[in-house]
Write a structure and sequence with these properties.
By secondary structure, the chain is mainly α. The protein is 71% helix and 0% strand.
């Protein structure tokens, strides 16, 4: 398992964001683990969201930008199955030690994770178009 853990940490790349001695453990986890994973998984997150709106027959692609931004947040906050899929995309790239840290405070870290995913998708709303199969 040590090989998997070291591979994952190296594969994800550098820490994103800054932390200090006053940073909370959740903030450290967010910048050391969540942000690099979300950056790595960005294209997959976009594709998963596009598939989600197509599958659920949401007329997302004809929405105004404001309505698209609201739809992104709404879909992630209200659809538990979809939210769990997104969590799995991220948690699958945790090392064992990171997973142990995660389960100690999963509720707070899940909120951070979903907020980061929502912001990431919203900031790239122009990329959320129908993708060819």
């Amino acid at each position: 398992m040590a090989n998997r853990d070291s591979f994952l940490k190296e594969f994800r790349g550098e820490v994103l964001g800054t932390t200090s001695s006053q940073s909370s453990p959740d903030e450290v986890f967010q910048n050391q683990v969540l942000r690099p994973i979300l950056k790595l998984q960005n294209d997959l997150l976009i594709s998963v969201f596009v598939y989600y709106v197509q599958k659920n027959k949401v007329d997302f692609f004809t929405f105004s930008v404001d309505k698209k931004l609201h739809a992104i947040e709404n879909s992630i906050q209200k659809d538990i199955k979809f939210r769990n899929t997104l969590k799995g995309i991220v948690i699958g790239l945790f090392s064992l030690e990171e997973y142990q840290n995660y389960i100690q405070n999963s509720s707070s870290l899940n909120k951070r994770m979903m907020t980061l995913i929502i912001e990431r998708l919203r900031s790239q709303v122009q990329l959320l178009e129908i993708q060819p199969n």
